Amino acid sequence: MPFYAHSLSDLSPEQWQRLEQHLLAVAEGAAKFAKLFESETWAWNAGWLHDIGKADGRFQAYLLRENGLDDAEYDEAGGGRVNHSSAGAALAEERFGSSAGRVLAYLAAGHHAGLPDWFESETGRAALRLRLEEGRANLDRIRSAVGEHAANLRDGIRPPPFVKKAQFHLWVRMLFSCLTDADSLDTETFVDPARAKQRTPFPPLAELKAKLDAHLDTLVANCQSTPVNVARREVLAACRAAAQQPPGFFSLTVPTGGGKTLSSMAFALDHAVKHGKSRVIYVIPYTSIIEQTGNILSGVFGRENVVEHHSNLDPAKETPRTKLAAENWDAPIVVTTNVQFFESLYSARPSRCRKLHNIVNSVVILDEAQLLPPELLTPCVDVMNHLVRDYGVTMVLATATQPALPGLAPKPTEIVPDPPALYARLRRVQYQLPARDSTATTWEALAERLQAHNQVLCVVNTRRDAHDLFRMMPKGTLHLSANMCGEHRSRVIADIKQRLVDGVPTRVVSTQLVEAGVDLDFPVVYRAWAGLDSVAQAAGRCNREGRLDGLGEVHVFVPPKPAPPGLLRKGADTATELLSIPGFNPEQPDAFIRYFGLFYSKVNDTGAEILDLLTRGVPNVFFRTVGDRFHIIQDDEQRPVFVRYADGERLIEQLRRSGPNRDLLRALQRYTVNLHLRQFEQNIRDIQEIPAGFWVWNGRYDPECGIDIFGEGLTAEESVV
Fold it and tell me: Are 139 and 94 in contact (CB under 8 A)?
């Protein structure tokens, strides 16, 4: 009697996918992926085990029923879906013991539901040890049927030499990634062959390197020989030279406006071609700036060769091939966020983990490295160490404000030969810092000072501060904050850039969202007192291109309200402490190493508990619990609401009429504002729930400031950014 893995309603059972065909294809695919980290035999076995439970009359009857066919030939007919994962998990432990078998049991049991905890979790989800009890009963039912498939399992498996207690959890996730991607790809080939055929090959990295080389040659030939452009060429040359060095950790310490994006990509592609790396992954902290980087890289390589994977992506910018490649990062160039990158590395979900094996043997550019979340710094640094040490990753920490990440080993190799000299040559601003005992500046007084400038940017600490200051500014002033949806912010930023080019009066009040990577160039910038990195990043929006005859002006002021409690307050306090030291110079790159060293020492919790949950009982690991807890953005503290700005009205009505689908929800991300839970509850009368648990803002959406939420009284810490 044949066993089937997958069925199609328009095909007779004889044309369905045979179970042995699927298991072999998945084993071969997973083994190919895992070969890069010396684990192909483990992945091969996982492929044969994952669906072996489908050799069960109950599952075969389920396939027949789902396709409207008679299931009488099977003894075990019944209703509903059938657990087909636990039998493979039980066979793994039976065949390979409680050590090696436990690894394979996690993979088989979790290939649909996600990697489980070993013990029962506080959420009540099924633990692996309970799944194994069920699996042993299921396995006993089908022993005569699985014998032929079990014969394909390979004995003598041992973990690679690098897998110790601390590395175990990431290694299991990497194996899980190989299995889930191979399973998904083979299933797609049978179930949706037209979709599978869209996964055409991308061009090799050497071809994309040639595109970048030609683009950079054109830029150099057409740009003026200003001091800034001369320095940018030197940074580029340093990146190309450093790319020839062996893989490992690198730092690219370049002042804002020093050409970091394209120079780091030149390093990455040169290094990848030299050392046979598979792809380049560009990791960016905020969705508010990822669009700018994606556009730059797409302009060089072609949109069809750059996969953007983030929540703020406009589906109109995706091609069928890049849309598919976002599922597993099977592309030469990937642009993503800290959230997507680091949360995937600690996730238990198949959809999140599927891409992980394609991080192996890549070049990762960590842009604005100082913005790693301090409350998760320990697990972030730990996984970076393992990726570089054990999985062939070269990692570049690129920023103007280089942090001293505690625990990073080995110390990164600096790409720029003499960062202090480069900073001195690229000095484009003059700071006016407040004295330690300075009194606060009122919003009224600050608004008056800002009006004295024709073009000026003022960056404040919270959305409430931006709102209050903006209301005191004259008509024509522009506003930027996270109270505005992504589409609204993008349009305002584009308007600001054009106004600056045209030389028209341009006064902007903004939160910190302009500080990391947004390409603005003002002659004068004001910054509310904050951490040293925030002040320096705001200064990076001043005289960015060095076009002024003299230096740009950066005025740092004490705001009416201090930075809100928490990390922002710790940053401001750390900067105050350092500035009181005689001779301390905040304009030198080593200032940021001192700043971050002191700042991190003030952070009470850097996420060490995450690693403890993953390492203390190996091989009994809390995969699911950690996946639920590791969130760079705490979703339980925020509620996304859709707004009727521009095309948002039409998309909301489409959602109301036809329900959600992937493309529609991706499009609606451009018209979403995240509200703190307290904001959400206080404004619930202006919020409507529509089908499938989505929320729509029915209150006023101000064409200048976005969602109007400030009538109910917000605490400062709830209105950051």
Answer: yes
